[in-house]
Design brief:
The protein folds into three domains: 2-19 and 253-291 and 304-365, no CATH class; 25-35 and 180-246, Aspartate Aminotransferase, domain 1 (Alpha-Beta Complex), CATH 3.90.1150; 40-173, no CATH class. The protein has a six-stranded antiparallel barrel with strand order 3-4-5-11-7-6. Strands 2-12-14-13 form a four-stranded antiparallel sheet, with helices on one face. A three-stranded mixed sheet has the order 17-16-26. The chain is 20% helix and 36% strand. The chain is of the alpha+beta class. The protein has helices at 2-18, 58-70, 198-209, 234-242, 329-338, 343-356; strands at 25-26, 31-33, 39-48, 86-95, 104-111, 122-129, 135-142, 144-145, 148-151, 156-159, 164-173, 186-191, 214-218, 221-225, 245-246, 253-257, 262-265, 270-271, 274-277, 281-287, 290-292, 303-305, 308-314, 320-323, 359-360, 362-365. Strand 13 (214-218) and strand 14 (221-225) form a beta hairpin.
């Protein structure tokens, strides 16, 4: 298992080293247009039709009785209204800048009370509002759940999270949130990863296609003046810009996740000349209790005497490894694997290199 993990990491780093230093990408894949943004919506609703996996909390039952009262249905007293087939849920969605009235959206439904599963449920009509309090979408429909939970008297089984589901196409746009990409005859292109090298590269690529139109405002924004011939159709002009290709600069980064042991090393990562020694201390503790039997006809009692065997060993072959400066990603992978390090050990080595000032890269922990 350990050798397989090391091989996988070495192969991934070797592939990264074998790739071209820079690959051309489209402008649309690394940027966004200012004014063309999405908005988050939220609301609280009821899911009905659950097969005994709902909630009987007072807040859920009160919400159900209020809904029935709005429908002019005579409802019993709260203490007499008992049902395990309903659940109070939070409903969320995201509306894009070009969504028009009648457009259907997917919505996410999450349990708010103590319901255990939304399997088989139906979301009742729920208005979804934005941060400004305006209702933009109404949602309703069957809830699709990607998990299950079954429970018996002495055992239970669960897969994934059945308390969260989606209503595919269940949101209907009632109020538009249009985007506006043209401001004083110019487009503003926003970099998803602001960079002082990539932003001018985008401006140069645009000026080669449309001379004297683009100007870099800062590391994360490029202003593009729409030519007079394109003012009647700025959407098509924005599409032409999005298809242009640039070579973005890739920052030197090492990203790791200690929970999963995942390590991703960027191609521009460099290490100064440094000596690394890595050794593991193995401590093996074995409990071997022994029974002490008294002699015949003696007044002694049988007792259990604890015996502990403690064996401390240190793995051999660690040694002091010298890693030369300005190594490539592939060379760095070979150097770390030569230490016999596991993914968690490699993470610790990277952290130590950063503290020593020998790692010329940004260390990011997920």
């Amino acid at each position: 298992m350990r050798a397989g993990a090391l091989t996988l990491i070495a192969a991934a780093l070797a592939l990264g080293a074998g790739a071209p230093a820079q690959a051309a990408v489209r402008v649309k894949d690394i940027t966004d247009l200012e004014g063309a943004r999405s908005n988050y919506l939220y609301g609280v609703g009821l899911v009905v039709g659950l097969n005994g996996t709902g909630s009987k909390s007072n807040s859920t039952l009160r919400m159900a009785t209020d809904m029935l009262a709005k429908l002019s249905v005579n409802t019993p007293r709260l203490q007499d209204f008992k049902s395990g087939n309903i659940s109070m849920v939070a409903v969320t969605a995201e509306i894009g800048p070009w969504a028009r009235k009648g457009t259907k959206l997917d919505v996410t439904v999450s349990v708010l009370d103590d319901a255990t599963s939304l399997l088989g449920g139906t979301l009742m009509l729920t208005p979804l509002s934005g941060a400004d309090g305006v209702v933009y979408v109404v949602a309703q429909g069957a809830v699709s759940v990607g998990g299950f939970r079954f429970r018996g008297e002495a055992a239970s089984a669960q897969q994934n999270v059945p308390s969260v589901g989606r209503v595919v196409g269940g949101g209907l746009v009632e109020c538009e949130a249009p985007g506006k990409i043209l401001c004083n005859g110019a487009l503003h292109i926003l970099l998803r990863d602001p960079d002082f090298v990539t932003a001018p590269a985008i401006a140069r690529a645009i000026n080669e296609r449309f001379p004297f139109t683009a100007m870099t405002l800062d590391a994360g924004r490029v202003a593009v003046a729409v030519p007079p011939d394109w003012l009647h159709d700025p959407i098509t002009f924005a599409g032409e810009i999005g298809l242009l290709e640039v070579n973005p600069d890739v920052p030197a980064r090492v990203v790791f996740n200690e929970r999963t042991g995942t390590i991703v090393v960027g191609q521009n990562v460099k290490v100064a000349t440094v000596a690394i020694q890595h050794g593991n201390l193995n401590i093996l503790t074995t409990e071997s209790p022994q029974v002490s039997q008294p002699l015949p006809f003696s007044r002694g009692r049988t007792t259990v005497v604890p015996r502990t065997d403690l064996n401390v060993t240190q793995q051999q072959g660690g040694g002091l490894h010298v890693v030369r400066g300005t190594v490539t990603v592939n060379e760095l992978a070979r150097a770390l694997n030569a230490l016999g390090a596991s993914p968690m050990d490699i993470i610790a080595i990277f952290q130590a290199l950063k503290q020593a000032g020998a790692l010329h890269a940004e260390l990011i922990k997920m």
